[in-house]
Amino acid sequence: MKQTIRTIFMLWLVAVSLHASVDIVVGASRQKSALQPEMQKLRTLLAAEVPAGKIRIIPSSHPVWKWRLAVTGIATEGQARRLLAKLRSRYADAYLLRPDKKRLRDSVKEGEAAAKKDQTIEINFTNLKIVDFIKMVSKITGKNILISEPVEGNVEFVGTRPIPESKLVTLLNQVLASKKLTLLDSGDGYMRVVRSAEAVRSGPPLANRTDIEQIQTEIIPLGSLKVMDVIKQANALISKSGKVSVSNDTNTLIVTDYPANIRVIKEIVRTLSAQNSSDKTIRYVRFQHVDVDSVYSKVSQMVRAYFSNFAKSKQVRVIESPSANSIILVGSRKSIARVIASVKAFDRSSDQKRKDIEMVLIKNTDAAEVVKVLSDLISSEAFSKNIDEMADVETLPVLKKGEKGPKGIAKPKSLAKAAEEGPRTAGNSDIKITYDKQLNAVMIFGTEQERRVLKKIIHQLDTERKQVYVKARILEINNQKASQIGMQYGIAGGVTDSSGLYALSTKIGLSDPTAGVTLANTLGLKIPDVSRIMALGAAISMLSQNGAADIISEPSILCINNEPSSIYVGKTISVVSQSSVATTTTDINRNVYRREDIGLTLDIVPRISSDNKVTLGIKIVSEDILPGSVIGLPKTTKRVVQTSAIVKNGESVIVGGMAREKVSKSREGVPILRNIPLMGKLFEREDVSHEKTTLVVVLTPFIINRSIDLSQLKEELGKLYTFEQSYAMKQLHR
Length: 734
What we know:
By secondary structure, this protein is an alpha+beta fold. Helices cover 32% and strands 32% of the residues.
């Protein structure tokens, strides 16, 4: 009888279990509030099939994922399976949860998650392509990764102990961050490799909505703190791709960045909120020689022990920032000042004081000049005293003229100035620096800290310098012939209006005043102010074709910004330097000659200033031989002009004023009769002509930002020159 009752009871339990409801779990989270938005979406998706009340957030026994989003109370397993197939397109990890096997199902799922979380893997590779590393992570973790951006470069990983498999994606993200890339969960069962800036703009998921360490957004309430007091600190902690915005209405921070940085910001906000005071401040201590993970616990113990007998408001909070390898101290200024030196003392390596030699290759300037600047800098006592402070910053500040560095360190002199003065010996510093001429490299001998500071300075000195391409036209204008065709050089060259085209300072082309300039503008040239250049060039060509101007030379020179350059146009003549007269009948007169340069020398020092302008330091020296000079004993003239001018990129400056007068005599008369003695002068005439000429130099500077721009500029100037010649020819033959 008992056996029969027991059998009937078991059959009843089976029947009840067959008709019991089934649940579908679609997601889990640490916080219940994080699942609320997704629950609303799921209710909208299943509005026609499932009552809204059956889509709920239920508790879980999992130690981490304490809440589940589930569709509960489905009548039959067949209906649950059909619904599960529909949900799998959106929720790839959804699964059935049967009441009779609920505890077993929980244990299996949570056990799998724990096993996967605790599973470790050993990796060690050298010179592995980043693309191959992405494929390796995808295969190990079972995650689909779409490479939507080109990924270049190699990576090297030295592994001494296994790492959790769950940290592989985090490691991959750190590798991609060096290339300004990141992983972004698409929400459709795969991750994408995108640019970090794009990830911030494309609406990354809210915190706790993804299980990977990717860029995400979190809203941080500030409580009683003021937004403006916190945002400066938050901006200092986020990555280059991160973004911080504020909501004044709700007094909250909206941070989009990597989770590690968001956690540090939240910790600072929590500490400041707990110890809200106007005297509270934040101090960052960056570690250069040790890993912050290895000293964080010791620093925390030291600070807690020091302030154990202090009031809570006087204590200092210690926060770790692994991404910046720093420790953040939050507290009053006086309290932080008590322990800051002790915290910095942890940043000591065993070989920190050991001196070594290091070579730094110089790419854009002369290594000898860099060494002279550094020698002048390290000779000061202030440099040695402040080297610790300078080593703590990523990049030394760029000082303007007259500014001072930390505690009296003056801005280094320019490279050219230092080169003129020559090298100096480092005074109170033990740092030794020299250079290798063939490799163009600087050699530094000093401690690791000293070498690091000097390398930062070298990096700022070794920048690519802009260049200035100066096109010159040297011409001699005959004043008499120029006045006959109505032209004089002046300051209005290259201007057009409704009454004509101003060339130098006289109008030409009155019947079609702006046609030439309009045509020049339609050539599609990228030369700045092409109309002015064309007008001036056409005027010079017209003077030359009329015989009023003699174009002596049209040289061009490429100058480095703020470096002197020189152009010489002329000839070399023989000049007697020593002469000896014969003293006997068998001896002869002897002359010793030397070669002298006679011509025009143009010295230019360009300096690129603000607003796309160029300051030209100009010196022109013109030497010439006077007519009628004896061979070997010439009489010469010398004309010098020295000035400075500020012109826009592509504009011309005309340097003149070097005039000279040439006197020529000629005789005309009646043939035969003018040769009669005494009476011949009655049949001839003597003419004396005075011909004045002016030496004019036209300089047009063009700023060259990149080397590739030079070839394009030369090509376009060639096209413009051809156009000037043809335009001037048409104006003359009209």
